[in-house]
Specification:
- The protein is α/β, with parallel strands linked by helices and 228 residues long.
- The protein has one domain: Vaccinia Virus protein VP39 (Rossmann fold).
- Helix content is 39%, strand content 22%.
- A 7-stranded mixed β-sheet has the order 3-2-1-4-5-7-6, sandwiched between helices.
- It is globular.
- The relative contact order is 0.13.
């Protein structure tokens, strides 16, 4: 078992490799979040990852999307929905590191949504909310809808399409490039970028599949749909 100082050192080194500069408060919040997962995991099944592997497989893996997400939203305020959030990954990590983003984490399991609410209160993260619901029931609109190991891309799009803002984007965290899933995407979504990620300390493929709603006939031609 590594010491608290060693764990903090590993987190700071990982952040530097990802080009991130978290404040001391954010570092403390992220480490306290890991402790909270480990504590709740003794009673509730939040994750199957062992405590000594959580820093890399959960925290740094989620931190790897921060840079790409910031570039995508361009420093603007935004609303983000983390679907099938589980223990709050990546939603809690995004909320801690990006105070300009309002993060809602939705899960169909009440205990997991309650955990995220507890994390928001205990870590003093005011831009974070846990929601016990099905994503199909949410109206949004959200500027970004994210998922991490949640479902196939076609299901993710179909279930969350109604909650995405007209000019919003889907952020799907995946391992290897999911070519079979990409081939089965419904017409409600189009891929505009598959971004490869490198997670410090993890020898595994990671990528973000960025998707958006395709332009309507009106926006594509300047005429109403069906116009001549």
């Amino acid at each position: 078992m590594i010491s608290s100082a060693e764990r903090e050192g590993q987190l700071r080194v990982g952040c530097r490799e990802l080009g991130l500069e978290p404040t001391d408060q954010q570092v403390s919040q992220l480490l306290a979040y890991l402790d909270l997962i480990a504590k709740w995991n003794k009673v509730y099944n939040l994750t199957a990852v062992r405590p000594d592997e959580m820093l890399g497989q959960h925290l740094l893996d989620s931190l790897a999307v921060i840079g790409p997400l910031r570039r995508q939203i361009g420093g603007k305020t935004a609303r983000l929905l983390d679907v099938g959030s589980g223990a709050g990954l990546p939603g809690v990590v995004i909320a801690v590191c990006c105070p300009e983003i309002q993060v809602d984490c939705v899960d169909t399991v009440g205990k997991k949504a309650a955990f995220i609410q507890q994390a928001a209160a205990q870590l003093l993260v005011s831009n974070l909310r846990g929601m016990h619901d099905r994503v199909e029931n949410l109206a949004g609109p959200y500027d970004v809808i994210a998922s991490r190991a949640f479902a196939s891309l076609p299901d993710f799009v179909r279930w969350s399409n109604g909650a995405l803002a007209e000019h919003g984007v889907w952020l799907a965290m995946k391992g290897k490039r999911p070519d079979a899933e990409l081939a089965e995407l419904p017409p409600e979504a189009e891929v505009f970028h598959v971004e490869q990620l490198s997670v410090p300390g993890l020898d595994a493929e990671r990528c973000i599949v960025w998707m958006r709603k395709p332009p309507s006939a009106e926006s594509a031609t300047g005429l109403p749909a069906g116009g001549r």
